[in-house]
Amino acid sequence: MKDKHSLAMVLLKGRTLIVLALLVIFFSLATPNFLTTNTLLLLAKHVALYGILAIGMTYVIITGGIDLSVGAVVGLAGMIAGGLIQKGLTLEFAGVTLYFDVPLVVLITVAVGALIGWLNGIIITKFGVAPFIATLGTMYIARGFAMLHSNGATYSNILGNAALGNTGFDFFGSRILGIPVGALILAVIAVVSAALLMKTTFGWHVFAIGGNSKAAKLSGVKVNKVTILVYIFSGICAAIVGIITASQLEASHPASGETWEMNAIAAAVLGGTSMMGGIGTISGTIVGAFVIGVISDGMVMCGVSEFWQMIIKGLVIILAVIIDQFQRNMEAKMALAARNEAKKEG
Amino acid sequence: MATWKKMLAVVSMLCLMAVTLTGCGGQKASTGDNGSQQALKGGGSNIIYIITPSHSNPFFKTEAEAAAAKAKSLGYEVKTVSHDDDATKQSELFDNAISDKAAAIICDNAGADATVAAVQKARDAGIPTFLIDREINGSGIAISQIVANNYQGAKGIAEKFVEAMGEKGEYAELLGKESDTNAGVRSSAFHEVIDQYPDMKMVAQQTANWEQTEANQKTETILQSNPNIKGIICGNDTMAVGAVAAIKNAGLAGKVAVIGVDGSDEAAAAIRDGSMVGTALQQAALIAEMAVEQADKYLKTGSTGLDEKQLVDCVIITKDNVAKLKTFVYKE
């Protein structure tokens, strides 16, 4: 009886990975070119965009919050990076235009992402605004600034100018040893953030806040500080994604990243992150992001209409959460059974 | 007692229905009064309202700015607003224009069906509406409907595409938002030309929702599953530019023919450097100026002297004439 239970638990816990494997097998049979190195690298490149967003989102959701502003920050970050390279920074009062080299452009862009995350954190912790509302507000603000930045126009051909010493922005869209840089960045962020979440006190505090924020506060966790840091991290992730997309397209468009926050939330939820907070893993989120990526890329290769992709994505998300609930119930039951058994023996 | 209450409820319901019905009847009568024969005088002020989709798209920005400049030069006060492709918001903007007693409304609308009621509302208030870029499903309500000839434009550029492909080979298509009429019109015009050539074979067709990032990712994936592709036809330039970036990235620069529709500056740059074959320019500024001129004439004389539905031909842009194109304006 116990063995049967634990086998079922193993299957349940690995369900997203199993779904991913099944999807890959299905598409490899359906289209001959699916299971090739190049397709999988492309897949990783596509997944990197919302995968990175989803990592930041996972932290936020574990604290029991939500960050709706990430898609807009992607758009704003792209515009800032593109603008700095193409137009430079004009200081009206000094009458000069400054051009920065690419590392500095990246640093400034990431700083702006962090700033918006910090704003989110302050609004939520110091002013007690619900995360959904606070980040909904900053979503509109960030999108508005993205539009204002160029008056709605696209910055195209953001390759920099050798004379100004700001070439090389296309690096984030290029490949190193054949691997897309975006995918490499995803891997680095995933490893670092997983270690941070599982191995450090900071990570433990993040879980504690989502589990029970009052209890966490009473046991000495600096709830406000940790919450603000988590939103800053999410903002930084979004800014990085903005840089990568702008670099891949060699163009930045202010409407870029619209509704991407939804894909990020979907990936986190598919990976077993609980919207109630307190539960979630980075590895689960990455697998969840790949499930979404395989569905969309695979169906394009099969030539299926996008409308079906939307329906299937929706079904997979709902199914994932239903199984999640099932798993929770089962875990609770097993814990209860174990306690009863212990009582009997005692 | 209970029956009595029920009776009361039924009677009051009937009364309510009667009131509602009379309301409808009254409205209809008023529509009849200023029917198509009688010219609309405008709301009384000197304001022209220009209602377009979001200016984040340079196409609509050019259109709105061209209309505004023309109206100002004709001595009107101008109010430029955006409905962001939201029919509800558009209806509210029409309400604003009506309470502002606008002289005329120039509108690039938010939906062929959803706009009819809003235009009718303006008409009932005596304000003439001139539609640009997109038609509505109804005639005799707006004064003019001036749109680019998408069909002619898409056919024209499809011919250039066939030429560039050497009349044979595999190609893919990126469709616009499928709920948008223009996406369908452009696609069927493309195929009317291309399908005449038996050696041209479409191996993939996906919607990219008029969007650059989506077009980029879908092109990458399509190139992966169909390595022999020699061409990509796109429903607009934004998608074409996304496809060009994917082609470059796959190391196929110059080997895949790409066409789009719209005539954006990004597409013009791609045509100049040879990564795009061409595009069909919708003369946004010209159409907007025509609408304002017709509004002016209508307000002064009571007629535009032209048919309600007017098609403005697209200009086929290729490497040969791309130099004459700038921000949706083609100068000979």
Textual characterization of the structure:
The complex is a heterodimer of chains A (346) and B (332). Chain A has 346 residues and is mainly alpha-helical. Chain A has one domain. In chain A, the strands form 3 sheets. In chain A, strands 1-2 form a two-stranded antiparallel ribbon. In chain A, strands 3-6 form a two-stranded antiparallel sheet. Chain A is globular. With 332 residues, chain B is α/β, with parallel strands linked by helices. Chain B is 46% helix and 20% strand. About 5% of the residues of chain B have low confidence. At the A-B interface, helix 3, helix 10 and helix 12 of A face strand 7, helix 7, helix 8 and helix 9 of B.
End-to-end gap of chain A? 21 Å
Count of DSSP strands of chain B: 14
User: How many strand units of chain A?
Assistant: 6
> Could you give the order of the helices and strands of chain B?
HEHEHEHEEHEHEHEHEHEHEEEE
Class per helix and strand makeup of chain B: alpha/beta
What percentage of residues of chain B falls in helices of 4 or more residues?
Answer: 40-55%
CATH homology superfamily name of the largest domain in chain B: Response regulator
* Helical percentage of chain A: over 70%
**What is the makeup of the main sheet of chain B?**
6 strands, parallel
Structural class of chain A comes to mainly alpha
Shape of chain A: globular
Instruction: Give the ordered list of helices and strands of chain A.
Output: HHHHEEHHEEEHHHHEHHH
Q: How many H/I helical runs of chain A?
A: 13
